[in-house]
Amino acid sequence: MNYKPYPHHMFLKKLRDITTFIFDVDGVLTDGSVQVTDNGQSLRTFNIKDGYALQLAVKRGYNVCIISGGDGIAMKKRFFNLGITDVFLGSGDKVKIFENYIEAKNITANEVLYMGDDIPDINVMKLVGLPTCPFDAVEEIKAISKFISPYPGGKTAVRDIIEKVMKVQGNWNDDHPNAADSGK
Q1: In a 3-state reduction of DSSP, which class is residue 130?
Q2: Amino acid 183: pLDDT
Q3: CA–CA dist 90, 151 (Å, integer)
Q4: Of 47, 41, 131, 120, which is closest to residue 88 (Cα–Cα)?
Q5: Which residues 6+ apart lie within 8 Å of 36 measured at CB?
Q6: In a 10 Å sphere around its CB, with 0-12 CB exposed, 13-18 middle and 19+ buried, how is residue 121 labelled?
Q7: In terms of pLDDT, which residue wins out, 184 or 63?
Q8: Among the four 5, 58, 93, 168, which has the fewest Cβ within 10 Å?
Q9: Domain ranges of the chain
Q10: Neighbours of 123 (CB within 10 A)
Q11: Mean pLDDT of 138-159
């Protein structure tokens, strides 16, 4: 693996520049496991701590976007309940969605943090300002990431990077937390 993280001072500067979070789902917001019921329904497990960070980022005015090849009514509902409205599921061409998204939001690629874990994420990760991944991402993704969370996908890797960005920008503290926010 040729992992080359930013030097610490550059990493902190990059965190200060982030206005937008984009996440893959399977292997990032979940551990990558999919349970399939007898009627063909796919079930995924999400982490409540990731949910808390996601909804807080939305409340603080960050763009939060989901781009995933996976799909399902339950996934859409989970993200909607967290306040995430920019959700692209069943997505084959992540680069095209990314390019259309930053144009529609009038942001630059340099402002975007993307967390992915597998080969379908590689091309879009090469375009963003801060490519990141969970600890258990595939080697090709680790090699292009500028930050590898010490946590695996579905086990607070998302919370880890959102918290880092928001703390550096002074947006993490929530004086009136609502215990129901992350469990929606």
Answers
A1: strand
A2: 61
A3: 26
A4: 120
A5: 42, 43
A6: buried
A7: 63
A8: 5
A9: 8-33+42-168
A10: 14
A11: 97
